[in-house]
Each structure stands twice: as C-alpha cells, then as structure tokens.
Amino acid sequence: MVAPIQENLVSKNKAYASSFTEGHLALPPAKKYAVLTCMDARIDPAAAYGINLGDAHVIRNAGASAKDALRSLVISEQLLGTEEILLIKHTGCGMLTFKNEDAVGILRKNLGEEATGQLEAFKGDFQPFPDLDQGVKDDVEYLKGSKLIREKIKISGWVYEVETGKVRSVV
C-alpha cells in the first residue's frame, strides 16, 4: 500500500511530466548564481525570488546555514560556474528559537544516549542563531572568508519576510 504523500508525489508528477518541455536545459545554471535559503515550508524560492527553471542553483537547509551548504556552494561555483551567491534567511525561523543544548536535550529524551552519540557527525552544532540580521552577516562573512570560495564571487545577504513575502538587503 502506498502512503498518501507518496500517492500525491506520483499523481502530481504525472500531471507535471505530461506537459514538461524543459528537458533541454543545460546542467550549469543559466544565470550563473546560487541561492542559499531555508528549508522552511512557507518559502517557495522560485516564486518568491523570481527563479525560473534552469536559472540558478537553489540550496536549502535549516536556517540557510552557510556551513551546511559549503559543499554544495563549492560544487556550484567550482564545477558548474556560478559567479554569485544570494544567502537568504527569513523571519520567524525556527533556528532563532533554541540553543544547541535544547536540541541535544530533546534528542536525548526522544532517542536516547546512543543517538546523541552520533551527533559527532556535525559536532553537535545545530547552528542556531539568536539574531536574524547578525546571522545573515555572520554567514556572509563565513563564505567570504572561506578559502573554498573564490574572492571574486559576489556574495550578498538578505532576509525574506514570511509575513509579507518581501525581501530586504542586509549585507
């Protein structure tokens, strides 16, 4: 028996594929940029940021973390030719609501000590941030300071307001 979410995937994909005409697009993004944004379900990067299919790489993770995304950004820039990075965090982000100790405590309670031992995979750092604008600035500085991203790559930082759908420049 197929679960309802899987049924939805198959039926919606069938409808999408029936009129799909973009299979000719090149592998590298046509507009040579990457967007790093949050995985928050309230954000539709294509619609909110004006990204057409094939235009840009869109990298999503919890909190739009530059550290989490570095591997993908290096591939995007070094192997696939992107020349600009837009880092976009958002208002109402869950990463503003806890500290590492809180997350570890929840894991320990829900999954036990053995599971928390596996946190070493990312050094137990969930990468929360207490201040939205400062979080944007810190991540932009992290990318600009990385030896893995060429100095000539343009990097900017933004905040998307989930309440209004608007973006504002931070750095």
Automatic annotation (TrEMBL):
Q: What class of enzyme is it?
A: lyase
Pfam families, per the entry? Pro_CA
Question: What is written in the cofactor note of this entry?
Answer: Binds 1 zinc ion per subunit.
What protein name does the entry list? Carbonic anhydrase
Query: What Enzyme Commission number(s) appear in the record?
Result: 4.2.1.1
Q: Does the keyword Zinc apply?
A: yes
Q: Any idea which UniProt keywords this protein has?
A: Lyase, Metal-binding, Zinc
Essential cofactor(s): Zn(2+)
Q: Does the keyword Lyase apply?
A: yes
Residue numbers binding Zn(2+): C38, D40, H90, C93
The organism is Hyaloscypha hepaticicola
Q: Which family does the record claim for this protein? A: Belongs to the beta-class carbonic anhydrase family.
